[in-house]
Design brief:
The structure is a homodimer.
Chain A: H1 3-6, E1 15-24, H2 37-54, E2 58-62, H3 68-76, H4 82-85, E3 91-95, E4 100-104, E5 110-117, H5 121-138, E6 143-144, E7 148-149, E8 161-168, H6 170-174, H7 178-187, E9 190-193, E10 206-211, H8 219-247, H9 249-265, H10 271-286, H11 295-304, H12 307-314, H13 320-334
Antiparallel strand pairs in A: 1-5, 1-8, 2-3, 3-4, 4-5, 6-7, 8-10, 9-10
């Protein structure tokens, strides 16, 4: 179903998705990295069974049943973290709509997340909270009065919550204003990163903004804080797009239509160039320049043209050049 | 009619046109630059009348009746030289097919040229020779036994003939072999220059090869010499295109289709970028990559998208940015 990719949501030409995530650990059970392979596997089975008791229609997938390419496909669809994909043991449970995913034995025993399309952070949070409540009925989560939820990484201690928004900000990037935004966001206690979280580069003008700490503030305060900052960034992004358009309409459209022309005709397309061209076209769709294209088509394309997703589609491992050739073919077919 | 642009000829995917030109001066009449405006005008009328006596269906156009843009259009269609276009006085006579043009009071009193599409240098020469013979019947050309025809510039003294070929050489340019070719051509007593002759740069991988001197050799020898060298260049160009294609078919096609994609979608297109993109597409047509495109379409586009031709079509003077915007619109419409 790929909810965040194909679904609708407010401001979804700028806010690609809203995500709320909780980190939880079982009381009295060592963190995953301290467990033997056997204990790890047993714990994963145990947790997945418990989840199924309180959530209907979910699917449990163990990493050991996935090829490296298939794991990477899950990362590209934002269902699991790159960290989990690289682990020897662990697994995850996902809903059919792919709006809920619960990682088991990543850094923490349980990491549940809800991802919704557009600016729906409060909704994602409420939904995640409800799932957390259900899970609490069947699992005993480590919690201390003074600290809150205990987690493997100190930055998650407290509410154990991370709320994040994936934003497409070509206007601010083109006008050279992302530096200011990044600095402002950091001063307000948030982090800003690339599409795949920690350490990833911001290709295609896509940024993830999330809370840096989860200690000392209520979840509601954290959510409100991010929402507020985000609304300001959205206003600024719209202003800068409008500025680019007004300064020279032909230059603005030239760049966008060239990007579209290249996507429609290239025979070799690497993933970085692809994301950058897609960024221009996305801005064009948002500006009403393409009647036949929708944000949904571009979202699908963005995910499906990622390296692992392409290989999964072709059902074989491809070297980078082969992939770039197939990506070009695939993109031409879609547009 | 624009014969060289829309006509057919051998090897015309590489040899865009063949041109033979004769420089002639009237015996006992000072060179044009020594004449007063009145005498210049009288001489132009006189010569044009004589030409009409021996050539039927030709049109005489005086520079004074052309706007600067219209003069430039004639240059872009290779009917007159940039030198004539910049003069205060002078004119030219052209055939309806535009395969014959006779400049009056450029550097010399009479400069007659024949331009044919493809590799048809001998044919162009024979045709020019015939016209020269006809003109000799009604005009007394300055000729000395020892030197041959007398001309304003010493490099034209002798046969007064210049034979040239306009070649499209993207293969040799892309593989970095044009330097060798240029050196070789010069050692053989020929010159190699850009599309608009003397001092013009070689945009769009288009080169003009012509004889440098016309003294001390028969016309037939000069023609044969150029034909021979040109056949070798054609072979080399085909080899290098094949090399590019074989080395990496996808890279070869990627560049060509991207060029096409940009031409089909850009909103601003300056003339240098336009010629360079057109060069790639032309190579693609020659390689059979575009079913719906012909060399003729590209030739027409190349000439019609030049600055003056665009302004003539729009019937107004445009600044460079306006022109680049209109060029993009025009090119999109044609492809």
């Amino acid at each position: 179903m790929r909810n965040w990719i194909i679904g609708e949501g407010p401001e979804n030409d700028i806010v690609m998705s809203s995500r709320a995530r909780f980190a939880r650990n079982l009381k009295g059970v060592p963190f995953p990295w301290l467990l033997s392979p056997e204990k790890n596997a047993a714990l994963e089975r145990e947790i997945s069974e418990r989840i199924k008791e309180v959530l209907s229609g979910v699917i449990h997938i163990s990493l050991e049943n996935l090829s490296p390419v298939e794991r990477q496909v899950m990362v590209e669809r934002h269902l699991i973290s790159p960290d989990l994909a690289n682990r020897e043991f662990g697994g995850f449970v996902i809903s059919k709509q792919e709006d809920v995913s619960i990682m088991i034995n990543e850094e923490d025993h349980v990491r549940l997340q809800v991802v919704l399309p557009g600016l729906r952070l409060k909704e994602a949070f409420d939904y995640a909270k409800e799932i957390d409540m259900r899970l609490s009925r069947v699992m005993n989560f480590a919690y201390e009065e003074e600290l809150g939820y205990l987690t493997c990484c100190p930055s998650n201690v407290g509410t154990g919550m991370r709320a994040s928004l994936m934003l497409h900000l070509p206007g601010l990037v083109r006008t050279g204003n992302m530096g200011n935004i990044e600095e402002g966001v950091r001063q307000l206690g948030l982090t800003i990163r690339g599409m795949y979280g920690e350490g990833s580069q911001a290709f295609g003008d896509i940024f993830q903004i999330s809370n840096q700490i989860s200690l000392g503030k209520t979840e509601e305060e954290l959510i409100e804080n991010i929402q507020l900052i985000c609304s300001q960034i959205i206003i600024k992004e719209r202003e800068h797009r409008e500025f680019l358009r007004r300064r020279n309409r032909f230059e603005f459209e030239d760049r966008i239509f060239r990007a579209y022309g290249i996507l429609k005709s290239a025979r070799i397309l690497d993933s970085v160039e692809f994301l950058n061209l897609l960024s221009d076209v996305r801005m064009g769709v948002s500006a009403g320049l393409f009647e036949h294209l929708t944000i949904r088509t571009l979202n699908e394309l963005m995910v499906d043209a990622q390296p692992a997703s392409l290989q999964k589609k072709r059902e074989r491992i491809m070297d980078p050049l082969e992939r770039d050739i197939y990506r070009a073919e695939f993109v031409r077919g879609c547009l």
